[in-house]
Amino acid sequence: MISSPEFAKILDCICPMYVMLDETGHMLRVGPTLQKLRPQSLMPGQRFLEVFELNRPRSIDRMETLMSTAGAKLHLCFRDQPRTSLKGVLVPLPEEKGALVNLSFGISVLDAVRDYALTSADFSATDLTIELLYLVEAKSAAMEASRTLNLRLQDAMIAAEEQAFTDTLTGLKNRRAMDHILDRTISKSNCFAVMNLDLDYFKTVNDTLGHAAGDHVLEHVAQVMIAETRQSDTVARVGGDEFVLLFDGLQDRDILDRIASRLINQLEEPIFFNGQVCRISASIGTALSVPDQKTEAAVLLHQADVALYAAKNAGRAQHFFYDPSLEETEEQKTVAN
């Protein structure tokens, strides 16, 4: 039934921007509107992840990790020009025979209409986008204002991305970016938290299974942290297996402790790589900004580091908040990774 021509015709009608994937991640069928976006390139037969780039969740580069996003909102774009932004959701097909990905334009619909000369016939009859298309065709002042605003937002997003500093392996911010964002946060806010996360037993993975396995673990860790944080939060890889999370506007200890607990629990789950099992855990330390007092970034990072090593010394896989009583000498802080 899934692969029948009749079923394909139904999909063409009700979701004309769908993609049907096989078990290897190759596209079996695509909706007519989606194919219209790339008329010179026949999409069926190509790998989904070679045509589309996932912006969120990040670091998705194989079918297995793509399948793990089932039910979650996907943010993606074309890898070639024009790099139209898309939203999507993936649903596994029965008996693990692949997946169905339904795509839409989201707020980029106005640009899509302009770039690809789309009409109401290119959307499902029940899609509210059709109502917007009538406004576009009439060139109403309201739609023109929305288009202008959308272009400005895209320009601002591109400018922000150009200024961002990214860790090439994980797709997270790097240390330089975190320092910049932390300084900016200190200058404008007195309510935030800095969480320092360090992986336990990561060196064992590298030593026994090799650096490729270690890289795979780091990519997995990045995905977990992105999934457990808000879009407004900042996640950075600041060392080999050390990460810093910045929660602007959040100081509730119960909420922060629940976030840390979820991170620890998820990172204790086995991670599979080429038939091998990688096992790690995470120790976490958190420092809170002081209301009405601009504490230096180096002090906050030091406090989070002190809390982190207290968690390691307490047996690993734990979360501690900074307290002055945790201060200790450099010799006492040394814990084998």
TrEMBL record:
In this entry, which stretches build a coiled coil?
none
**Protein's UniProt keywords contain Transferase:** yes
Write down the SMART domains for this protein, in alphabetical order: GGDEF
**Residue span(s) of domain GGDEF:** 190-324
**Protein's UniProt keywords contain Nucleotidyltransferase:** yes
Question: Which UniProt keywords are listed?
Answer: Nucleotidyltransferase, Transferase
Write down the EC number: 2.7.7.65
- Record GO terms (molecular function): diguanylate cyclase activity
Which NCBIfam families does this entry report, sorted A to Z? GGDEF (TIGR00254)
Spell out the protein name for this chain: GGDEF domain-containing protein
Q: What is the lineage of its organism?
A: Bacteria, Pseudomonadati, Pseudomonadota, Alphaproteobacteria, Rhodobacterales
